Amino acid sequence: VDAFQAWCGPCKTVVDLFRKIRSEVGSDRLHFAVAEVDSIDALEKYRGKCEPVFLFYAGGDLVAVVRGVNAPLLQKTILEQL
């Protein structure tokens, strides 16, 4: 889940990376979602940050968190969690 704030430009740039990785590993194994933290109460603790936050879930459980736009780390985390 890409937890972002509408004013955060770097948050928007990562979508292309997600699409690339999903096309490489297949959409049946990997699902991406975006959530604007200002409009979802459950994500309140991520509001007011000057960085995007990426939440990785497996089987409904939070398994990893990556803060900031670090494409190599995001890709590594995604592939490790598959």
From TrEMBL:
**This protein's superkingdom?**
Eukaryota
Domain Thioredoxin, residue spans: 1-73
What SUPFAM superfamilies would the database entry show?
A: Thioredoxin-like (SSF52833)
List the InterPro entries: Thioredoxin-like_sf, Thioredoxin_domain, TXND_domain-containing
- Annotated protein name in UniProt: TXND6 protein
* Organism of origin: Corythaixoides concolor
